[in-house]
Amino acid sequence: MVTLQSYLILAAMLFCIGLYGALVKRNIILILISIELMLNAININLVAFSAFVGPISIKGQIFAVFVMVVAACEIGIGLALVLLLFRQVKTVFIDKYTDLKG
Amino acid sequence: MDNILEGILFYLMAAITLFGGIFFLRSNNIIHAILYFLISLLGIAGIFLILKAPFVALTQILVYGGAITVLILFVVMLTISDVPEMIILKTNKLVAGLLSALLFMLITFIVGTSGFAQKREIFLGRETLTKNFGQVMFQDYLLAFEIAAILLLAALVAAIYLAIGGPDEKAEG
Fold it and tell me: Which one-letter DSSP state was computed for residue B115?
């Protein structure tokens, strides 16, 4: 018995794993990956709704592809910023990024 | 029969996805963490296939499994420092775990009490799906498609500009 509920709960689990990772991890690259996991959970929701709700609805899948486009932009710029930060501070651990402290 | 197969495949793919996610959280080595992330992504691609969205599944494997993972691995290799890989840094695991668990319970409660979540039919047919996808994408959502293309181009230019060194290095050179 696989209902829409199963997919939504799977997506919720994955989203919470991503949230926990984004809060706990101290390596800035792993935080970016956690955010990607959260976006993927959203994509599962969109595609599941698209498959279950309407007879001819394909809009959810199109929305999911646009989410992927934005996620790719985000990870690209994020990683470029990580490289820039690494050149200045020589580390990828966010506890060392204390330049903005007064 | 079809329903049983769908159920088995769903639980298999869900197990793969959650396995990847949980071991991503548990691993102390960053390369291992990235590989577990990749396993999770492939499980999600399987979920998309079960939901009869082959184009999204293929895009998932190409964009995430191919491009983004390789990009992340390159950045990891470029940012190796002398600091040992895993120092125990202060993390507030209790608050983070409580927050995540609370959010999960809230979502489960909402999903469980709402009526729409009981549907179990998958409507879409298999054959014309990718064709439909292309038609809808290039007719109804053409403007959004173009805007996404411009966004990708802008992100490409910005990423190259930042990776070269940003405003500082340009002023010096």
Answer: S
Please report the pLDDT score of residue A36 as a whole number: 94
For residues B76 and B154, the answer to whether their CB atoms sit within 8 Å is no
Taken in order B4, B5, B11, B15, is the CA torsion positive or negative?
positive
A54 to B123: CB separation less than 8 angstroms, yes or no: yes
Q: Would you tell me the crossing angle of helices A4-24 and B30-50 to the nearest 10 degrees? A: 160
pLDDT digits (tens, 9 = 90+) for B84-134: 555 555 667 888 889 999 999 999 888 888 776 566 666 555 556 788 888
Chain-chain contact of A13 with B96 (C-beta, under 8 angstroms): no
What is the signed CA dihedral for A43, B64, B76, B172, rounded to 10 degrees?
-90
- Determine contact, residues A48/A4, Cβ cutoff 8 Å: yes
Per the DSSP assignment, residues forming a β-bridge with B154 are none
DSSP 3-state assignment of A93?
strand
Between A3, A14, A77, which is nearest B117 by CB? A3
H/E stretch holding B69 reads helix B69-78
Q: How far apart are CA B130 and CA A34, in angstroms?
A: 30
E strand or H helix at A99: none
| Inter-chain touch A20–B96, beta carbons under 8 Å | yes
Nearest CA in chain B to A52: B122
Q: Do A72 and B155 touch (CB under 8 A)?
A: yes
Residues of B in contact with A78 (CB under 8 A): none
Higher pLDDT, B88 or B8: B8
Instruction: Tell me which chain B residues have a C-beta less than 8 angstroms from the C-beta of A6.
Output: 10, 14
